[in-house]
Design a protein that fits this description.
about 140 residues, alpha+beta, Beta-Lactamase, five-stranded antiparallel sheet, two-stranded antiparallel sheet, 3 helices, 7 strands, about 45% helix, globular, transmembrane helix, transmembrane, membrane, Roadblock/LAMTOR2_dom
Length: about 140
């Protein structure tokens, strides 16, 4: 547990940097492929956990759709959902990890995409999580 808290503390400040660098950002969450929150900024634990769980379903759905493309490997790279009131971004961020952002309607979509890519490139190896076996990390 101490290792996870230390890992999460190290991630939280990087997520804060993304949120403060892109006006209109509400929540930033890093999650594992199975929907477990790894780090967060801008929300309480319950909200971040709900977003992480929903993201696991979205990345699975996006992968299934991607598998229908010829010569595609079925891996999701980016999902963007525009809703009344805002945007949702989900980006692959390493082996078995994802970066999710919820932003208000006025967000600069280009800046958000660029900052998310920069964050993933800068700390991608820290975002990776080993596969889980029978509910436990490998």
């Amino acid at each position: 547990m101490i290792q996870r808290q230390s890992h999460q503390t190290n991630m939280d400040w990087m997520l804060k940097d993304l949120a403060e660098g892109v006006p209109q950002t509400r929540n930033v969450v890093v999650l594992s492929a199975d929907g477990l929150r790894m780090a967060q900024h801008g929300s309480d634990n319950d909200t971040a956990d709900r977003l992480a769980a929903a993201c696991a379903g979205l990345q699975s759905l996006a992968g299934a759709v991607a598998a229908e493309l010829p010569h595609a490997d079925g891996q999701m790279r980016l999902v963007v959902i525009e809703m009344n009131g805002g945007f949702f971004y989900l980006m692959a961020a390493g082996a078995g990890a994802y970066l999710a952002v919820l932003a208000d309607e006025g967000v600069d979509a280009g800046l958000m995409g660029q900052r998310m890519r920069d964050l993933v490139l800068r700390i991608g190896e820290h975002l990776s999580t080993p596969p889980r076996h029978e509910g436990h990390p490998a």
